[in-house]
Each structure stands twice: as structure tokens, then as C-alpha cells.
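## retry 2 of 3
previous attempt timed out at serialization; input unchanged, resubmitting
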Amino acid sequence: MIKRNLALLIFVFFGINIVSADDKCGYVAEKLYELAEEDVKITRSRDELAIGDLSLENTLKSVRKKNSQVLDRILDECGWPVKNKYGDAANTAAWLVAQHADEEPEFQSKVLNILLPLVKKDEFSAIRYAYLQDRYELKRSGKQIYGTQLMVDSDGIRLPENEVDSLDDVNRRRAQLGMETIQEYLFRAREKSKQK
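## retry succeeded, writing output
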């Protein structure tokens, strides 16, 4: 009887720890939704302002810095929120936070290193990886690989030619990932901006 109770006590004790260890990341999806929702809300408010109005820039930078710090802790504690464990929405929210961490290039580099093996195993979108890589490279070197980062100014929506090597090379790399051409991408972005 004592042995059985001891075995039961050990099972319960270790079982609770195992559940707690698994459960330590149970908050991840909900937290990522919150971070992404906050970013999107402020970004939309900023986008409704007139071109050149920077009144929300400091708020946006502050939110994005905080969000990247939270995601960094999540990555250290739980790893990348892969779709098969956390769902597509959490995966997308984490990518959005990393994508918008423009003031944190070391963090973006860390995320790219985490994501590359997942892309190779088809566990993360190569297209989303390209967007993040362009964002990082643009900040680091002033150049883009896939031409995903467009500029909006008084001249409209455009891809600055000095940010890419050649449109033919960019279109070839985009095609390898199943992306539309730069020309189609620009047309779609311009049409979408007319609908606002």
C-alpha cells in the first residue's frame, strides 16, 4: 500500500511538473494576437494621417520595440510558434512583430536564423521570409533582395531603383518563390491604395 501511494505521489508530482512544463507556453498564441492587434491598430491610425505627419511615429516605435522584446522572450522560452502547434494566426502574428521590428536589426537577424531551417523544411512561408529578409537587408545595407519594401511618398507608391540590383534579377528571385513580378506587385499596391 505504501509503495503504491508513493508511486502515485511520484506520478502526480512529476505529472504536474510535466503538465506545467508543457503549459508554460500555453499563453503564446493569445499574447501574439495581442501584440499584432496593437501594432496593426496603431499602424492603421498612422496610415490615415497625411503624408509627412509623424505624430504617431514615436508611439509606433515604442510599441514595436516592446513587442519585439516580448517575442524575443517567447522565442527563448518556447521557440518559434510553428503552425502545427500554435496555429497559422499565431505564426503570422509572430512574423508581423518581427517584420515591424525595424529598430531592432539584431533581433530581426536572430529571427531570420531561426526561420531559415523552417523554410527549408516547408514549415514557414518562404514568401514571408523574403519580406523579413528584405526589411532586414534594407536597414543593414540599403538594398533589397526581393523588392518587397515599397516606398510611399508624394510621388506615390514606388520601388526605389537604388535599393535593388536589377529588376530582372529581382523578378527571377521572386519567381523562384512563387511571387508575382515587381511590376504586378506595384500595380496591385497602387490599385489597393486607390480604394482607401
